[in-house]
Amino acid sequence: GRSAALRARMEERLLSARFRYINEQLYTCSSQEAAQLFQNDPEAFEIYHRGFTQQVGRWPENPVDRIVRYLRQRPASLVVADFGCGDCKVASSVRNKVHSFDLVPLSPLVTVCDMAKVPLAAESVDIAVFCLALMGTNLQEILEEANRVLKQGGTLMVAEVASRFADIRAFMNAMTQLGFKSISK
Ligand code: SAH
Questions:
Q1: Is 171 in the pocket of ligand 1 (CB under 6 A)?
Q2: Can you name the residues that pair with 101 across neighbouring β-strands?
Q3: What is the mean pLDDT of residues 62-76?
Q4: Per-residue pLDDT tens over the stretch 112-149
Q5: In which family does this protein belong, per the annotation (predicted)?
Q6: In the chain, where does the domain assigned CATH 3.40.50.150 lie?
């Protein structure tokens, strides 16, 4: 009884610690290294995703819901690319054509690839989404890839934890240099 409960609690804490460790790794390594990490250790992805879902579940609002609400207000004819799509909440919630990219296929809707190099033609999407997925130290390469696949005048949507930005103004300036104009923050 009591020792089983204690054991379960301890195991839960170890899993959360592993989630935080993997999460930190994803934000401090390149996207190519992240791909290697999940390839070499499929269990890492499982633990990561469980922890991610748990964490987001405790937030007052899941940003992916806000992105879905925004997409529903815009024409369903717009083509969307979801970078680091996770369980494909975007693709499964809107009528638009959604290209869903992730390192691991949590759903059959996923195209497995590194988001720094997605199998899409240049200027083929209207809206690019990074929902809690702007990870990887090669940020510039990843955002250039989003820029490549976006049509002129397309929309880039980024949802990220505020504490992840060392300097939000520097980030906004860098985005301008990459060719993006801020519409709302
Ligand atoms: N956008 C989803 C999932 C966010 S979790 C949501 O909001 O629910 C972050 C996701 O990004 C994970 O599924 C992780 O596997 C993916 N990811 C991290 N680095 C990646 C990379 N280099 N290429 C593709 N996907 C990546």
A1: no
A2: 83, 111
A3: 98
A4: 999 999 999 999 999 999 999 998 899 999 999 999 99
A5: Belongs to the methyltransferase superfamily. RRP8 family.
A6: 63-178
CATH topology of domain 63-178: Rossmann fold (3.40.50)
Return phi, psi of residue 171, to 5°: -65, -45
Q: Give the position of tokens 């929902």.
A: 131
Choosing from 54, 103, 117 the residue with most ligand 1 atoms within 8 A of its CB, the one to mutate for a pocket test is: 103
120, amino acid identity: L
Q: Residue 89: CB within 6 Å of ligand 1? A: yes
Residue in the block written with tokens 């054991």:
7
Spatial contact of 40 and 33, defined as CB atoms under 8 Å apart: no
Q: What is the pTM of this model?
A: 0.94
Distance CA 97, CA 58 (A): 30
* Fold classified for 2-57: Arc Repressor Mutant, subunit A (1.10.10)
Q: Which of 82, 136, 135, 138 is nearest to 110 (CA)?
A: 82
- Average of per-residue pLDDT across 30-46: 93
User: For strand 80-83 and strand 125-131, is the pairing parallel, antiparallel, or unpaired?
Assistant: parallel
* String of DSSP letters for 39-77: HH-HHHHHHHHHHHHHHHHTSSS-HHHHHHHHHHHS-TT
